[in-house]
Specification:
This protein has 257 residues and is mainly alpha-helical. Among the domains are: 108 residues, Multidrug-efflux Transporter Regulator, Chain: A, Domain 2 (Orthogonal Bundle), CATH 1.10.1660; 57 residues. The chain is 67% helix and 7% strand. The chain has a 3-stranded antiparallel sheet with strand order 3-5-4. A two-stranded antiparallel sheet has the order 1-2.
């Protein structure tokens, strides 16, 4: 069972999604036993208890499971993951946790895996239709190779989440192109600045500094982009509201005459 199968019962457009432990495990691609184990270890916050003492989970739980998965991919032990999560400030939203996961993912080199169709569905956390696989291929997340698929592991979860976004395929691809162009331009400028700053240093020091700076630069980029996007959306929505208000005033003025 997937979240998509139960979404009409668990959420509406203006409320947060609520998942049972079975739905959460299926969406995250883990077992129910794993979810309960993480809960007992304090890696997951407790669910909200609803009628009939049924626990309900939300976006923050999904995002935290994705972060734990990324930390495991980095080779961290369970004890190290506990320490890492214990240092995070309380009350982080799903967006905050996704930001942390993106920074953690930036530590690792690009990884491309070869998966069967069944393995692709398991890694995606839900069954994928032929149409959805084709959309992932158009986003360069997966590539068909005979009876298997070459998968960009770093983009798979993002690609699967984009499948549920109510935007046209063309809009998603255009947004991806814009992000790639601007991120590459920013990367070139930052790389030039760093090269100039360390030009006289020993090669070993440069490599150590680069490894230390990489996650910091990525986090800075993600944070500034997130804030800039929020400001742009706020300005757009405020402008839309003013236009509607102005139109209403004009209409009422005409009716008075």
């Amino acid at each position: 069972m997937t979240t998509r199968d139960t979404e009409p019962r668990g959420r509406s457009e203006d409320t947060e999604p609520t998942l049972t432990v079975d739905e959460l495990a299926a969406r995250a691609g883990v077992t129910v036993r794993t979810v309960r184990f993480y809960g007992t270890k304090g890696l997951l916050p407790p669910p909200a208890i609803g009628p009939r003492r049924v626990g309900h989970y939300g976006r923050e739980h999904l995002a935290r499971l994705a972060l734990i998965e990324e930390l495991q991919h980095q080779g961290m032990t369970l004890a190290a993951i506990e320490r890492y999560l214990g240092q995070l400030p309380p009350g982080l939203t799903a967006h905050d946790l996704a930001l942390h996961r993106a920074v953690v993912a930036s530590w690792a080199p690009d990884t491309v895996e070869r998966l069967t169709r069944d393995e692709l569905g398991r890694r995606a956390g839900r069954p994928l239709s032929d149409e959805e696989v084709e959309r992932l291929a158009a986003m360069d997340v997966v590539t068909r190779v005979g009876d298997a698929y070459r998968v960009d592991a770093g983009l798979l979860r993002l690609g699967v989440e984009l499948l549920d976004v109510s935007l046209s395929h063309e809009t998603v691809l255009a947004a991806r192109t814009a992000l790639l162009e601007h991120s590459r331009a920013a990367a070139r400028d930052l790389s030039r600045l760093l090269r100039d700053a360390v030009a006289e240093r020993d090669a070993r020091d440069v490599k150590s500094l680069s490894a230390h700076m990489h996650p910091l630069v990525v986090q800075a980029l993600l944070t500034t982009f997130q804030r800039s996007l929020r400001e742009e959306l706020r300005a757009w929505l405020d402008g839309e509201g003013e236009e509607r208000s102005g139109g209403a005033d004009e209409g009422s003025g005409r009716s008075d005459r």
